[in-house]
Structures are given as C-alpha cells and as structure tokens.
C-alpha cells in the first residue's frame, strides 16, 4: 500500500531525534488519534541549520516527518513555511488517501515550530493560509480526521 | 537484511489450507464436477460427497445433518442468521440483542436492520471482554426475537459464557445465534448442550479452504431465506454447491475437532511462553482480553508509546505476520471497537499487537518473534515523543 519512498523513509528515517536547546519546537497531533509529531529547529540567520523530529504514529506519519524535515533543512524560515503537505506527499511519491492527514500533520508541525521560534523572538506568529480542519491539538473529544 | 523466513502468527485472520485438505478437494474440480441437482451418476457422486461433508460438520457440532446448511463463509452465515430471523419473526417482535465486540459481519448487519425499523441493544463487555449475564437478562423484553453473541472474539480471543447465554435465551423463548468462526477447533462445542439455535462457521479459520462455511439452524427455528433461487440445501440456500469447498470443509472440521486437545495444549504452551517473555522483557506492556478464558493461540498485547501499524511494518520486514487494533490498518481512523469496548484508552488501543498462533508454529518461531519484537519496540520507542516524555518523567522522580 505504501510507495517505495515511504517505506525507505519509514525504515531509514532522516533527522530522527531531539534537539535539546532547540530554537523552535512544534507539536501537533493527538495520542487518541494515533499520531503525534514533534519538530525541533535550530535557526541561524533566519536559516534552518538543523531539524529533528520525534513521531508516534503509523508508517506514513513517520515517513512524512522524515521527508518534511529533509525538505526544510537549509531553507529560510519563509521558504520552509511554504512547504505544503502536498509537497511532502509528492516527495514521498504519494500517500494512500486515508493517510494524507499525515502529511498535513507534518506541514502543521513545521508551522508550529516556526511560529514557536518567532514568538520566542518577539515576532508576530505567521497566520495559517489554509487552516486545516483537523488541528486536533490535545482535544480528547475531537474526532480524528 | 530482509529475512527470507516467514513466521505466520495471524491464524485468526486465516490459516493455510492443510495440504491433506487440498488433496481430498482436488478430485472434485475436474473429475467429480457433476451438479448435485442433476440425475446422472457423476452428479449422484457429488451429491453423496456433499452429504458426507454435512455429516462431518454435524458430528463436529453435536447436531443433526439436516440442521447444517452450507454457505459461502462466516459473513454469509451471520447475515443469513440475523436477517433471516429478524424478517421471519417480525410479527413477534422487533428487538435484537448483540454485543459491542462482535465482528463487523454481525455489527453492520444489525446496523442495517436498525435502518429497517428493528431495535438493537449492544451489550457492553467487562474489561476482559466478556458479556455479563445480568446485562443480558435485563436487556430481554417481550419484543426480543434474537440474541446474537459471538462464541469467541477474533481480536482479544475472549471466550464468551455461551452455555449461560444459551440457557437464558431458551428460558425466555428467544433465539440464540452465535458467530463461532473463531471457536471451531479451539473450543469444544455442543449445540444441543449449549442450547444454541444458530451457529456460523467458516472453513478457512481451521485449515480449510476460503469461500466456504456453514450455518447450523436448529430444527424448528423460523427463518427466512437470504438467497433466493434454485432449490439447493433443502430449498433454504440457493446456488450450485461448491462441492470441492464443501468436501474440504467437512474434512477440515473433522480433523480440527479430533485433534483439538493435543493441538490446543501445544499451541497454548507456545502462546504462554511468548506472552511471559514479552511481559518480562518489554516494559510498559499489558495483556488485553481475558487472562484464562481465551482462545489457545490468541495473544493481544499493548505496548505503550508506540503505534500498531509501524510495528506491523517492521515485523513484516523480519517476515513476521501479525495484526493490530490500531486504526491505521482498518481503513478507518478509529482504533478497534473491541479494545475500546473493554475500556482501553484509544492511545493504548493504537499500540496493540495481535499474535495468533496455530498448528505449525514452533518453539523456534516463538524465539524468533521475541527477538525481533523486542528490537522493533525499542526502535519505535526511540522515535516516539511519548516515550521521550516518559523517560524524562522517570528521570525526574
């Protein structure tokens, strides 16, 4: 059911781990829904010089985290903000329809990490252009989508 | 690095057809191909083979041969039993009782009947997955026409108190159907002693072929047909008989029942060792289901901080076939309705793993699974933010 690319990123995840003194951290998802993604950023001169992830979730969730971190490493914060869930899914050579929310989670995780960095630096958080319906952060009673 | 070896521990999903079963089926494709409804000799031989298989199934259940009807499998048997009773007894009442942990072949059939105006009670289960007899008694009304409760659960392996349920139903004059798809060959069954009115079974769960099953209908039970057409199966189930399948089913059920005690002892011993070593060597792990009243090959455990589908993918990488109650494999995003019904939190249900052992598993398989499962759990926990938080909490204590 998964593409070779998904399996490759699942079996050999890139950038898995934690940055203890991260400049920005984003966490999205919900254990009730079976997936949580945590993204850590190191930012120097507006550029993401290092990125790590921790993920609780299915194969697609792990692969989406791995691919998303690869796509934003070395990018400016503005460039990283523009990395969409579709870009993540396409880079993975597609996700099954029911797993598309995993790529959405990856996009949201990056956005949260970037905004965490911005807020810590006294900057206005950027607004989500296309707020996804399922920002299921921490709400137990919400349905998983 | 990918293992060539396959360790199959998903016998509740299906079993490999026993080569000896295949051998007895083979002549009924190209040689004994006669339609049992026809008159000539090769047709009479087919007819005879079907009746012999019927005898074998009846013997295995403690039933009479004319109470056995061949179907295409468990799903058809469940649909027939429930819809057939519902529609034939509509004038008597419109209430059906089932449990929250049934297979979807039962649950979705009941949901369909709800749309047709029937009223359904879904009995809860306790934390081991058993229905409480008091709940059943309290749910029966003068409108109740059918109780359908599975013999043993496919996910957690819990065996239901069938004898007590049968007794209560008979006392109240309510039909009792049980989906025994998982139980055949694993638990002794006697439909008359257990006061079962209808029972569903499927051959591929006990080393028989896929696409063939049976429904036991006690003599005198009022039931409508599900399939309409020719006069096969004493005018109750239309469609040309799947002779080879029926022969395979008959042979397989005979073997499943006659070898049951010896096989169950061996399989349960392997399962118990696997469970003991998992609980001993992998922390933050729990057994789901009933500690004793469970199918001999069934093991269902939850591992905290990790998700089931990623476990299955990594186990598959090592050639281990298993299943999970996590949402991700079911095509929905909700975790197993069975695990949730036992009171397990959704996140623990997402981390569940079902290993169902069978006749061909060995001690060596158990060693292999433990060795690799341990690695898989460690690897996924290393990746998990929930585990990272857990480690930090433990360090701070």
Strand content of chain B: 5-15%
* Coarse structural class of chain B: alpha/beta
Instruction: Classify the oligomer.
Output: heterodimer
Classify the beta-strand content of chain A into a percent band. 15-25%
Number of strands of chain B: 12
Count of alpha/pi helices of chain A:
5
The number of helical elements of chain B comes to: 15
The rough form of chain A would be described as: globular
Compute the CA-based radius of gyration of chain B: 22 Å
Cα end-to-end separation of chain B: 40 Å
Strands of chain A, count:
3
Order of helices and strands of chain A: HEEEHHHH
Can you walk through the features of this model?
The complex is a heterodimer of chains A (145) and B (397). Chain A has 145 residues and is α+β, with helices and mostly antiparallel strands. Helix content of chain A is 38%, strand content 19%. Chain A has five helices and three strands; from the N terminus they run αβββαααα. In chain A, a hairpin with a 2-residue loop joins strand 2 and strand 3 (47-56). The longest helix of chain A has 21 residues, at 100-120. Mean pLDDT of chain A is 91; it is low at 134-142. In chain B, helix 1 packs antiparallel against helix 9. The mean pLDDT of chain B is 96. By secondary structure, chain B is of the alpha/beta class. In chain B, strand 5, helix 7 and strand 6 form a beta-alpha-beta unit. In chain B, strands 2-8-7-6-5-3-4 form a seven-stranded mixed β-sheet, with helices on both faces. In chain B, strands 9-10-12 form a three-stranded antiparallel β-sheet. A two-stranded parallel sheet of chain B has the order 1-11. Helices cover 43% and strands 13% of the residues of chain B. The longest helix of chain B is centred in the last third of the chain and has 22 residues, at 260-281. Chain B contains 15 helices and twelve strands. The chains are: A alpha+beta (145), B alpha/beta (397). The A-B interface holds A 7, 10-11, 13, 16, 18, 27, 31-38, 54-62, 98-99, 101, 144-145 and B 305-310, 313-314, 317, 326-328, 331, 333-335, 345-347, 350, 382-388.
């Amino acid at each position: 059911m998964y593409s070779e690319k998904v399996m490759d990123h699942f079996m050999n995840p890139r950038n898995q781990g934690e940055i203890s003194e991260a400049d920005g951290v984003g966490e999205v998802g919900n254990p009730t829904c079976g997936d949580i993604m945590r993204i850590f950023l190191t930012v120097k001169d507006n550029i993401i010089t290092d990125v790590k992830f921790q993920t609780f979730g299915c194969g697609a969730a792990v692969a989406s985290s791995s691919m998303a971190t690869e796509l934003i490493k070395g990018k400016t914060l503005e460039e990283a903000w523009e990395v969409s869930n579709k870009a993540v899914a396409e880079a993975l050579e597609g996700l099954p329809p029911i797993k598309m929310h995993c790529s959405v989670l990856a996009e949201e995780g990056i956005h949260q990490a970037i905004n965490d960095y911005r807020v810590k630096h006294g900057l206005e958080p950027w607004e989500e252009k296309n707020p996804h319906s399922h920002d299921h952060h921490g709400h137990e009673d919400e349905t998983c989508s | 690095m990918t293992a060539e070896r396959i360790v199959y521990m998903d016998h509740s999903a299906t079993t490999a057809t026993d080569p000896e079963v295949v051998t007895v089926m083979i002549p009924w494709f190209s040689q004994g191909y006669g339609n049992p409804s026809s008159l000539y000799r090769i047709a009479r031989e087919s007819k005879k083979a079907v009746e012999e298989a019927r005898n074998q199934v009846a013997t295995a259940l403690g039933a009479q041969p004319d109470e056995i009807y061949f179907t295409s499998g468990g799903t058809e048997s469940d649909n027939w039993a429930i819809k057939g009773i519902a529609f034939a007894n509509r004038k008597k009442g419109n209430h059906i009782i089932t449990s929250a942990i049934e297979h979807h072949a039962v649950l979705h059939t009941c949901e369909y009947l709800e749309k047709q105006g029937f009223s359904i009670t879904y009995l809860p289960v306790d934390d081991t997955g058993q229905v409480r007899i008091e709940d059943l008694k309290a749910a029966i009304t003068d409108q109740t026409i059918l109780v359908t409760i599975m013999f043993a659960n496919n996910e957690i392996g819990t065996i239901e108190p069938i004898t007590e349920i049968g007794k209560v139903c008979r006392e109240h004059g309510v039909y009792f159907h049980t989906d025994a798809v998982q139980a055949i060959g694993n638990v002794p069954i006697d439909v008359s002693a257990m006061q079962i009115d209808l029972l569903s079974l499927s051959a591929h769960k006990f080393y028989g072929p896929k696409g063939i099953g049976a429904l036991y209908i006690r003599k005198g039970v009022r039931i409508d047909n599900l399939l309409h057409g020719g006069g096969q199966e004493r005018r109750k189930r239309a469609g040309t008989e799947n002779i080879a399948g029926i022969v395979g089913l008959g042979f397989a059920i005979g073997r499943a029942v006659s070898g049951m005690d010896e096989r169950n002892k061996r399989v349960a011993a392997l399962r118990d060792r696997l469970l003991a070593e998992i609980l001993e060597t992998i922390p933050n792990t729990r057994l789901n289901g009933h500690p004793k009243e469970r199918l001999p090959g069934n093991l269902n455990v939850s591992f905290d901080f990790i998700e089931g589908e990623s476990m299955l993918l990594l186990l598959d990488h090592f050639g281990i076939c298993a299943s999970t109650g996590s949402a991700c494999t079911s095509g929905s995003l909700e975790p197993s309705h069975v695990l949730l019904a036992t009171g397990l939190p959704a996140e623990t249900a997402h981390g569940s793993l079902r290993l169902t052992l069978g006749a061909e598993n060995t001690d060596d398989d158990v060693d292999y699974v433990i060795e690799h499962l341990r690695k898989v759990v460690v690897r996924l926990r290393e990746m998990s933010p929930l585990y990272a938080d857990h480690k930090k909490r433990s360090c701070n204590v």
